[in-house]
Amino acid sequence: MSGPILVFVELGSGEAVGTPDRVSLETLAFARSLAEGLGGAPVEAVLFGADASVAGPGLGAHGAAAAHVVMDTAIVGAYAPAAWGAALAELAIARGAVAVIGPGTDRGAEVLAHGAARLGMPLAANVLAATPGASWSVTRQRWAGSLLEDGTLDAPVRCLTMAPHAVAVDERPGTSAAAVAPFAPTVSAADVVVRVMGHEPPSKGSISLTDAKVVVGGGRGVGSSAAFSELEELAGLLGAAIGVSRVVTSNGWRPHAQQVGQTGQRIAPDLYIACGISGAIQHIVGCKSAKRILAINTDAESPIMALADYAVIGDLHQIVPAISAEIRRRG
Ligand SMILES: Cc1cc2nc3c(=O)[nH]c(=O)nc-3n(C[C@H](O)[C@H](O)[C@H](O)COP(=O)(O)OP(=O)(O)OC[C@H]3O[C@@H](n4cnc5c(N)ncnc54)[C@H](O)[C@@H]3O)c2cc1C
């Protein structure tokens, strides 16, 4: 049998502390389908952090036969991209891995880039599909998803990151737990010179933008920081997260953590309510995985209309409070 496919699994912080993030679970589903193409190669997860041994066994339901938990406190105590990449590379060599895969998140991309460099292998980023063979055929996103590129990956260890939401999470309850295996890598002091020194927790009760079922989005059309209270009220009634366009973060109306798009978060809610957002390609790339889009815009010709399932043409300052009032009226 061939060596395993190693999957870097990112654990959430804030309220989701210690929980595998959704894109990592999607990446495990992607690895499971690759493993079938490789005649049943094992899928093995790699986790870092104090909570890793708790999260590890549950990854069995997502196709992982084993969960390697990186134990070195010098590197698990804080996120240190070079050290995590070095540990991943060391484990890949120790396990004779045929592939090392990670989620196409900020952290996934960073760790995989370091890991591939340590292995001396090429990295295919933002992959949507891959077909294993003597050389692997891959399709990947470029230019924020406006271009798809077909290529081949010729390397003894295939390193790639998976584009967020390219495949669905594939959880099969009742599958055996992943066997947790501690791994103590060799880490040099130089590998930990860049590391996270602290975290700012999200405000209490806030809903994660990437996991939210409903996102209320606001763009330049909202007009000011203060006017976001109308969107916050609607979000509160719907149990939704707030997402924004880059104009909004550039104007300092909302924090960058809420930005949706090419240089922000990729979201995949059941419903995205885009208020006063024109639908520039750099924004669309972040919200096109939404199941339904409701656009509220004064301009019937704005590009978001081409993507919207529903649209209300009009002033958001009238429409958003009216929707909130109707939700409240219906109890
Ligand atoms: C390299 C690069 C990366 C980028 N990354 C991102 C990114 O990650 N995310 C992102 O969002 N953008 C990104 N951008 C910027 C992007 O190109 C657009 O400039 C931005 O998305 C536009 O934001 P907007 O829709 O809020 O504003 P606008 O394009 O100005 O649209 C405002 C909309 O509000 C409507 N409107 C105005 N008043 C009202 C009202 N009262 N009621 C209802 N509707 C109203 C208007 O009709 C218009 O459609 C990036 C750009 C570049 C070059």
| CATH third-level topology of the largest domain | Rossmann fold
Straight-line N-to-C gap: 59 Å
Q: Please give the CATH class of the largest domain.
A: Alpha Beta
Second-tier CATH architecture of the largest domain: 3-Layer(aba) Sandwich
Annotated CATH homologous superfamily of the largest domain = HUPs
Task: Give unreliable regions as ranges.
Answer: none
Largest sheet: 9 strands, mixed
* Number of continuous helical runs: 9
Give the neighbour order of strands across the main sheet. Answer: 7-6-5-8-4-1-2-3-9
Q: Bin the helical content.
A: 25-40%
Topology, number of strands: 14
Q: What best-fitting shape do the alpha-carbon axes yield?
A: elongated
CA radius of gyration is 21 Å
| Coarse structural class | alpha/beta
The overall pLDDT average reads 93
String of helices and strands = EHEHEHHEHEEEEEEHEHEHEEH
Beta-strand content estimate: 15-25%
Instruction: List the ions, cofactors and other small molecules found in this model.
Output: flavin-adenine dinucleotide
Kindly give the count of domains: 2
